[in-house]
Amino acid sequence: MNEDFDVIVVGAGTAGIPTAIFAGQRGARVLLIDADNRIGGTMHWSSGQMTAAGTKMQKKHGIVDHPDWHYADCVRISKGEVHPVLARIAIDNAADSFDWLTDNGLVPAKETPVAGWGHEPHRTRRYAWGENGGVSVLEVMQPLLDKEIGRGTVTLSLETKMTRLLTEKGTVVGIEVEARDGTKAEVRGQNVVLASGGYAANAKLWAEMCPKYPLRSYCNPYSRGEGIMAARAIGARVDGGDKFLCSFAGILQNPSDPLSARGGFIFNPYFRRPWEIFVNKAGKRFVREDHPSVDHREHALLEQENVEMFVIFDEGIRQNSPHFNSEIAREHAAKLFGTHPQYFKADSLAELAAKCGINAKNLEATVRDYNAAVEAGVDKQFGRESLPRPIDTGPYLAIRAVGFTVLSPGGLDIDADLRVLDNNRKPIPNLYAAGEVLGKARLSGKTYLSGMSLLPAITFGRLLGQRMLKWQGARQAAE
Questions:
Q1: Helix or strand (DSSP H, E) at 310
Q2: Closest by alpha carbon to 96, among 468, 464, 459?
Q3: Whole domain around residue 185: which residue ranges?
Q4: S-S: 31 plus which of 5, 419, 437, 454, CB 3.0-4.6 Å?
């Protein structure tokens, strides 16, 4: 691999694929690499959620919307923490990106568009996804990429990772790559785009970037932060790790493996009203279990010791309540108590507390107070409204649940032209970035803005390929 390229794209995922497609349409000689043995990156893990204002889908449903309203919702939900320039770029171009997907075959799920789904709602119905989640998006983009590969504009190299950026006098001139067999080569390019994802599969980098929070993740195992580390090695600015917010809540299948986190618990009262209570390691309730705001519950869990909680209930609740896990059948879940390292069962609350490692006296008092609230029909402590039955029928049950992540909060800083900035906030010549390598917090702050990860990554990739990247002989990209 000794030839020179007009564009080198590191990462064949959500941002990298559209970058390569549109650069190829403009006649670029593109090298697209990925460490995985398949393209798609995080799209294989993503729920595929997207928000955009003014789409053809909305107009079809008679929905009047505007990017200004979308931006106002993002500012409101994030409490003003979105990057004002980058958020406007993502939002102002979101409808074009979404329409590009639907024009090329994306079929939105029949229940969409909606105003909210899982996190804080928007003011209007602009929120959508495909039936197969992120894979629905990949299924649209892959044929377009294959077309450019067939035309000879894009060279795809899988099982190939970037080991470092090549520079001359402060300007990025290419990358060093390493194949699966260990073979290394230097590849030169006029533009290098880092679309290599986050670092939620790299425990060492996580500890460095997010030192206050333990790593528990469900993510692409190739989210190792290699693009972040390579850029930082040449002086790129990296920030945002302090804006981590956990998802509420998951379970570690293996307590010693931080990458074994899984979701599936139905804790959102929009889908299932809680019958259980949530307690911390002190054995005390810390949040209204049926609080309508997911953001409120996530922030409450984030403040607990070790970012963990225990779901407390009893056999009567297990038998009679709606099932609590969308991924495990009720009959199978019943067999996990006492056998799975995160599922506990005991004949008394004191014994249950001992098995969980929480304060027994506090747990007994907490359950006693909760049962009194059920009897009275009023939860004076937290204002919980769902009070179906007391916790008083043994055996007593508990599940250890933890705050986990699917995305990395921090990453590379960029300017309005998507150029990577150095520690003096000056652009590093010929180096660009898009997608999760920027960090989730860049466009969401310390919250989860529904649909503001996947579609902005596609949008930034489109803009890079369409007009931001420059090389000799470039032409206008097709829409």
A1: strand 308-314
A2: 459
A3: 4-240+408-468
A4: 5
